[in-house]
Amino acid sequence: MPHRPKTPCAHPGCPKLVPYGQKYCEVHAREHSHDRRTAAERGYDRRWQKARAWYLRRHPWCVRCKAEGRLTPATVVDHIKPHRGDPELFWDEKNWQPLCKSCHDKKTMTEDRNVEYKY
Ligand SMILES: [Zn+2]
Ligand SMILES: [Zn+2]
């Protein structure tokens, strides 16, 4: 089998030679896939922080407390239907509700857990 020449790792300043067709050496392949993931996560977080702040400005009170006649500032935008990573459900404002921290914790303790058993 003919051997292709090895190519240097694409990481700046890394002198390691890697098999043809591979971009990074073992160490840097791991590092760069990690970079990509956190960069995406950072962008996503920023977008969500903004959407959340904007939503809470228009919906400042916890809906559960309000239903019980209490006015508690909402600090969490909760997904009524668990999004389970589905971006359409995640970004659908109709699926959001403002909750305070304690109501949100109560909800995740009960409803969200039940949903998991249903499927
Ligand atoms: Zn390298
Ligand atoms: Zn509440």
Give a written overview of the molecule.
With 119 residues, this protein is mostly helical. The protein has helices at residues 26-58, 63-67, 87-91, 101-109, 111-118; strands at 7-8, 17-18, 76-79, 96-99. The strands form 2 sheets. Strands 1-2 form a two-stranded antiparallel sheet. Strand 1 (7-8) and strand 2 form a beta hairpin. It is rod-shaped and about 75 Å long. Mean pLDDT is 85; it is low at 115-119. It binds zinc ion (2 copies). One zinc ion is lined by residues 9, 11, 14, 16, 24-25, 27-28.
Task: Offer a few descriptive terms.
single chain, 119 residues, 5 helices, binds zinc ion
Short description:
By secondary structure, the chain is mainly alpha-helical.
Fold blueprint:
Elements: E1 7-8, E2 17-18, H1 26-58, H2 63-67, E3 76-79, H3 87-91, E4 96-99, H4 101-109, H5 111-118
Antiparallel strand pairs: 1-2, 3-4
Bound molecules: zinc ion (ZN) (2 copies).
